[in-house]
Recover the amino acids of this structure.
């Protein structure tokens, strides 16, 4: 989703800039905790008003070497 914060703190959720099946890869360089929220915002332009699934893959680089 693409969230805009306007003047006076007004928040609006717009159509995402990314495309379906886009991905982002993050690398943690120290121990961390990760929190993920898949919010369904049926009254916004995000996902055409439908709640859709997300996929999260967490890899331990030590196990891949």
């Amino acid at each position: 989703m693409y969230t805009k914060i306007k003047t006076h703190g007004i928040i609006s959720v717009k159509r995402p800039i990314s495309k379906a099946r886009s991905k982002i890869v993050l690398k943690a360089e120290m121990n961390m905790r990760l929190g993920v929220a898949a919010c369904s915002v049926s009254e916004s332009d995000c996902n055409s008003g439908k709640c859709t699934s997300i996929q999260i893959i967490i890899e331990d680089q030590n196990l891949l070497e």
